[in-house]
User: Fold these one by one.
Assistant:
Number 1:
Amino acid sequence: MSYEDAIAALADPTRRVIIDRLRRGPLPVGHIADGMQISRPAVSQHLRVLSDAGLLTVTPSGTKRLYAIAPDGVDNLRRYLDNLWDDALAAFARAAEDQAKGKSDE
Amino acid sequence: MSYEDAIAALADPTRRVIIDRLRRGPLPVGHIADGMQISRPAVSQHLRVLSDAGLLTVTPSGTKRLYAIAPDGVDNLRRYLDNLWDDALAAFARAAEDQAKGKSDE
DNA sequence: ACTTTCTGTAAGCGATAACTTACGGTAAGT
DNA sequence: ACTTACCGTAAGTTATCGCTTACAGAAAGT
C-alpha cells in the first residue's frame, strides 16, 4: 500500500519484466510466465509481492486469475519522487547560490 | 546511471533516510551519520551505492566530502514512473471498456 | 464423479546484501 | 614532522531474498 513497499517491489528486475508484460492490459498467471526463464510458482510469488505492494489488482475469472497494474499504486511512488525532485532542485539552486557567495558548507 | 540502479538504491530504507537528510542541501559524511543507528563506514557504503546509481554527487572540500542529491538521477527514475503511469492508465481504461462490452480476457 | 486446467503455498537451498570491526590514506592544524 | 580530523576500503558474519520441486485446492469440462 505504501510507497516504501512499492519501490522495494519494483527494485527487482524480474518483477519489472512482469510489470512490463502487464502494460498493455490484464493477463492470467500462465500467460505472464510463458517465455520467462523462471518457473511459474516463482512468477506467482512475484505477483504476490507486487500485489501486496499495491501495484497490482487481481480479478478471478473462472479458474484463471487476471492480474492488472493498479494505477493508484504507481501514483504513490510517483508522488514520492516528484516531491524528492522538487527538494533536490531547490537544494541544488541554493547550493549554487551559496557557492557564489563563498560559503562552502554548513 | 540507469534508472534500474536508482530504484535498487532507493529500495533500501536506510538509504532513503540518507536521501532525506540531504533534501535541504549538501552534507559531509560525518554529519550524515550523526544520530543514525548504524556505523559511519556503513553510511559510507550506502553513499557509494547512491553515488554509483547517479543519485548523489560528491565534492571534496578540505578533508571533508560533501554529498548532494543529483537532480538528474532522480529525474531518470521519475520519467520511468511517469511512463508506467501513462501505460497503466491507458490499460485501465481499455480494460474497463472491454468489460463493458463483455470481453473478459485475451 | 472424474479429469483437466489453472493457480497458490510450503519447505529447502544458494546467493546476495547490509552490517560490524579493523585498517589505511589524505588534508589541515600546531 | 607530528598529530588530529575525516573518510574510504577490506574481511568476515548474519539475515534476507529469489529460486526450485512438491503438494494442495478450486473451477470448468466430459
Number 2:
Amino acid sequence: MTDTTQQAPGRARRAPSMADVAAHAGVSSQTVSRVANGLTNVDDGTRDRVLESMTELGYRPNKAARALRSGRTRSIGITMFTLSSYGNMRTLDAITVQAARAGYSVTVVPVEYPTQRDVAVALDRLREQDVDGLIIVIESHIVDGADVELPVGLPVVVIDSATRTDYPVVDNDQAQGAALATQHLLELGHSGVWHIAGPRTSYSAARREQSWGDTLRAAGITPPPVFRGDWSTASGYEIGLQIAERPEITAVFASNDQMALGLLRALHERGRAVPASISVVGFDDMPESDSFWPPLTTVHQDFDEIGRRAITTLLREIEEGPSLSTQPLTPTRLVVRASTAPPPAR
Amino acid sequence: MTDTTQQAPGRARRAPSMADVAAHAGVSSQTVSRVANGLTNVDDGTRDRVLESMTELGYRPNKAARALRSGRTRSIGITMFTLSSYGNMRTLDAITVQAARAGYSVTVVPVEYPTQRDVAVALDRLREQDVDGLIIVIESHIVDGADVELPVGLPVVVIDSATRTDYPVVDNDQAQGAALATQHLLELGHSGVWHIAGPRTSYSAARREQSWGDTLRAAGITPPPVFRGDWSTASGYEIGLQIAERPEITAVFASNDQMALGLLRALHERGRAVPASISVVGFDDMPESDSFWPPLTTVHQDFDEIGRRAITTLLREIEEGPSLSTQPLTPTRLVVRASTAPPPAR
DNA sequence: ATCGACGATGTTTACGTCAACATCTGCTCG
DNA sequence: CGAGCAGATGTTGACGTAAACATCGTCGAT
C-alpha cells in the first residue's frame, strides 16, 4: 500500500519524478539528482535513503527532461540501406551491442531506396531525434550529393564509404581482401582470375574490383573484362551460366558469397566440377559459406570489429570533440576451404 | 549576416528554438508553435512569414522538449536477441521501414544473452527511453520469468512468443507451415518423416515440432525421435552425419534453412543423393535457399507482413488505447524446389 | 577560541514546447 | 451605433532535470 498516485482509467499512471522521490526521502530534488548521477558529494546515509525511495517508487530518470536540460541524449543514430545484407546486419548488430555497453541507445532509420532524396529525408529525421552522433552506412557518392545536407556540428562516423575526408571512416580493408583472394588463386597456378563484381553504386565493390585488377597486373597479367552482378545469388547464377560455357575460365573471384553461391549452382547444373575444373573464391564469409557445396573459400570480414571501432570513434568524438585521427582499415583474412584447387591439367 | 548566435570553439552552435524563429519573424513563440503544429487559426500572411523564418534559420523542432511537454515521443522500442538470424533481421527491417512511414523512429536494444537478467536490463533501458510502445521479439518463457518486469501501461506487441495472453501477438503460422512441409513429404510417398528441431528455448521451434508430430499421427504414423539442433549450419551438419548412415531415413524436415544446408553438406559428403536417396525440406526460405545444391524445398515466411502488422497493431494501441483483438497468424506457404522427390524404389 | 575552508544540502532558474487562458482587433447584427 | 462574438495573437506556467548559486554546519589551523 505504498502507492498513493492515482491511476487514470485506461492510462498509464504518471511516472514518478525526482520531486516525488525527494518528497518520499525527505530531501531536495537536487540531492536526488546528485544521487541519480552518481556524484560523490552526498552523505552515505542520505544516498541510501534516496536509493531506497527510488526503488520503492520505481523511479526512472526521464530521458526527455534530461536531454532538454543537458542537450545530450545519450543516443546515437544510424542510417543504412536495407538491413537485409549480411554485412549491414552484422555491423548493426555489433553497433547496438557496443553502444548498449557504453550506455547509449541506437535509433535506426532505414533508407528505403538509394536516392539522394531518401537519404536526405533519413538524415533529417535523425537530426530531429536529437541524437548525439551519427553513423552513416551509405555509399559516399550518394551522401556527397547536392541534395544531402549533412548535419552541422554533429559527430559523424562513416562506414562503407570513402571520398569525404572530413569524417572518420571505419571499414574493412576491401583492397587487401581482394588481393588476398586473387593472390591465392594465382599461387595455386591459375593463369588468369576472372571477377564477378558488385554493382557500380557500391564503393566496396569498386575497391575490390580495383584491387583484383591491380593484383593481376602486378603479376604481369592483363585483367579480363569483369562480369557485373548486383550482390544477389540470382545475378551470380546468371553470370555462372555464361562462365560455365567457357572452359578457359578456371578461377573466379566473386565480390560476395551470395554471388559465389549462385555461381556454384550454375556450375553444378552445367557439370563444371568445383574445384577440379574451376576454382571459386567469395567475399564476406557468411556463416553459411562453410556448408556450401563445396565449402567456399572466401575472405573473412570482421564486422564485429567494425561495429566496435565505429562506436569507439564516435564516442570519442562526442565526448572529446572532433579529432582528425585517421582510422586504419580493419584487415580481412582468407579462409581457405574446398572450392579452390590448382587448375586442371590440360 | 543573419547569424548572430555565437559559435563556441569546436562545438555545434545552439540549434534555433521557437523563440529564435519568433523573434526573427516578429511574432510570439506560441504562434510559431501553432504554425509548426499545423493549426489553422493563424493568418496566412503570418504563417508565411513564420515558415520563411524557419527555413532561413534552419529551425527543427526539439524533440526532447516536445516529449517532455506532451509525454509522447513518437518513437518505439524494439528488443530482440542477436540480430544475426535471418528472421529477426528481416522483421527488424520491415519494422523500421513501416515505422518510418508512420512517422515513428525505432530504437533497438539488443539482448546479448537469452537470460532473464539481460532481458530485464534491456526492457529497463527501453523504458528510460520514453518510447511510446514496445515490440518484443523474445521467447515468451524468458519474458514471463519472475525477474522480468514488463512496463506497466505501455503498449506492447509480442513477436515469436506466445503464452502471455495480455499482449497482442503477431507471428507466422508455424504450425501450418510445419504441417505443409510434413504433408508434402508424405504425399510424395515417404512412409516416415524425420525432424531436425530447433533449440528447446525457442517457441517457434516447439510449435513446428509439435505440428510435425501431429501431422504424422494424423496420417497414422508414429513420429520418430527428433534430432535437436541449435539453428546453426554446424548443428545441421553434425546431425546430418548421423542421418547419412541410416538408409531407412528418406525424408527430413529441418526446422530452418540453415540446418537444412548443413544437412545437405553432410549428405553430399557421405554420398547420399538428394533427392534421389533422401528428401529435405527447410523452413524460412532465405534468399540463398534457391541456390543451395540442390535448390531447397522450404516453407516461406512473410517477414515483411509480420513487421507491417506489428507496427499497425502497436500504433493502434498507442493511439486508441489497449485493444484485445486477437491477431490471426500470418500464413506461410510451401516453396517446392529440387530437394524433394518420391522415396527411392527399394 | 576564532576564522576560514570545505562538504552536504537546499533554492532558483533555464532548457524548448505547448496547453490554457488573456487580450486585442474587426465585424455582424439588432 | 454599440454589444457581442469570432478569430488572431500574446502571456503565463508547467513538464523533469541539472547547473549555478546560496546556505548551513563542522572541523582544523592558528
